[in-house]
Amino acid sequence: MLEAPTPANEDERLEVLRVLELMDTEREERFDRVVEIAKLAFEVPIALITLLDTDRQWFKACIGLPISGTDRSVSFCGHAIHSDEPFVVEDALRDERFADNPLVLDAPFIRFYAGAPLIAAKGVRLGTLCVIDTEPRRFAADDAAVLRRLARIARDEMIRPPAPEPELYSAAEYRQRLAVWKRGLEPEGGR
Fold first, then answer.
1. Cα of 162 vs its chain's centroid, Å
2. 173 is a domain residue
3. C-alpha angle 135/112/50, rounded to 5°?
4. Helix axes 29-42, 141-159, angle to 10 degrees
5. Residue 96: inside a domain, yes or no?
6. In which domain, by residue range, is 83 found?
7. Do residues 28 and 162 make contact, with C-beta atoms less than 8 angstroms apart?
8. Cα 121 from Cα 98, distance rounded (Å)
9. What is residue 26's DSSP assignment?
10. In the chain, how many domains are there?
């Protein structure tokens, strides 16, 4: 098994994750909808929105797995955050980077993986929107385009603050939180 290298901008990446305050939060319908669409669009048993912390991969949204994350060292998503393009493994058993990975040899028995990075400002890749199957499969250019678009939707939801709950924030507090979310988190060139 080949562990993914640490991105050159790891400190900046982790700081953006911290500012977003998404790690270890409750499930949210806005993210669950994206993985539901991905699961249906690609006809796969597993779809995830992952966020990569220092030593773990945490699932902000998950369909098809009974867990909330894995060790980063065995994650496919750790490889996917090294490019702006989708990372695809059509048959993990035939890929030397993953053939002896415990997620391939044991549950969930990953054979196919496709993950598009969730890209914030300045190219900071926070995690992925990924689809996983227990059977090998092909992934066409059209599939990659759909996955990229869904990843952009997930990213847009990440950088948009959730709607305020009136009992939690005053108007001034909400404006302050909104300013923090907008500062430096908008993707370059806008949405």
1. 18
2. yes
3. 130
4. 180
5. yes
6. 10-182
7. yes
8. 30
9. P
10. 1
Over residues 18-43, the pLDDT tens digits come to: 988 899 999 999 999 999 999 999 99
**b/e per residue, 16-39, with b = 16+ CB within 10 A?**
bbeebebbeeeeeebbbebbeebb
Q: Which two tokens mark 52?
A: 């990569």
pLDDT tens digits, residue range 42-76? 999 999 999 999 999 999 999 999 999 999 999 99
CB distance 39 to 131 below 8 Å: yes
Residue 2, SS3? coil
Single-letter residue type at 61: A
- Domain assignment present for residue 3? The answer is no
Beta pairing partners, 100 = none
42: closest CA among 129, 145, 143? 143
End-to-end CA distance of the chain: 37
Q: How many other CB atoms are there within 10 angstroms of residue 163's CB atom?
A: 8
